[in-house]
Amino acid sequence: MTIWLTHFIENFGYIAIILLIAVENIFPPIPSEVILTLGGFLVSGTKLTLIGVILASTLGSIIGAIILFSISRNLTLSRLEKLLETKLFKLLGFKKDDAQKAIDWFDKHGIGAIFYGRCIPVVRSLISIPAGIAHVSWTKFLILTTLGSLVWNSVLVGLGHYMGKNWQVVVRIFDDYTLVIIALLLILFIYFGIKWYKTRIKK
């Protein structure tokens, strides 16, 4: 895969980086850590520049995020309420007004999550979905997504450039980091799921 990615980026330059990162943000077949650190490494032996790779990858991130955000915005409040009224969700203890409560919570507390979420593996791709469902304004979404993506991409491209031929060491470190994040998210999901369900049972 590394050989293919190298040839693809060498042949198509910034267009390849934009395309790869955009696809990774929607459905990550290739982790961004690999693309970004490799891109940083290739700056030394190609016509690519460090700033160019960072800007191209950030543009790719924005394009991918916009696609998910746009799709999620079509999931209106009424559609969510209908979904929560199905037998499956009723058995799980959900109520119709939970949809509005979730949207209100994200409007009040979740805006910052768009920025910070762009810097967390796995979450960085998925954060566009709740933002779209909550109908966060396009201006806020684009600003926070751009800033968060710029930070994440700058760090990884910079590390790839700094490490040179050892850029894959960075990927291995972030792979471990990603596994820890997934494990923590799973634990938190189970914990809050059980806590929420017990609360509903008592009510």
Automatic annotation (TrEMBL):
Residues 30-161 form the VTT domain. The chain crosses the membrane at residues 12-30, 50-71, 141-162, 177-197. Its main location: membrane. Keywords: Cell membrane, Membrane, Transmembrane, Transmembrane helix. It is found in: Cell membrane. InterPro entries: DedA_domain, VTT_dom. Pfam families: VTT_dom. Belongs to the DedA family. This is Alkaline phosphatase. It comes from Lactobacillus taiwanensis.
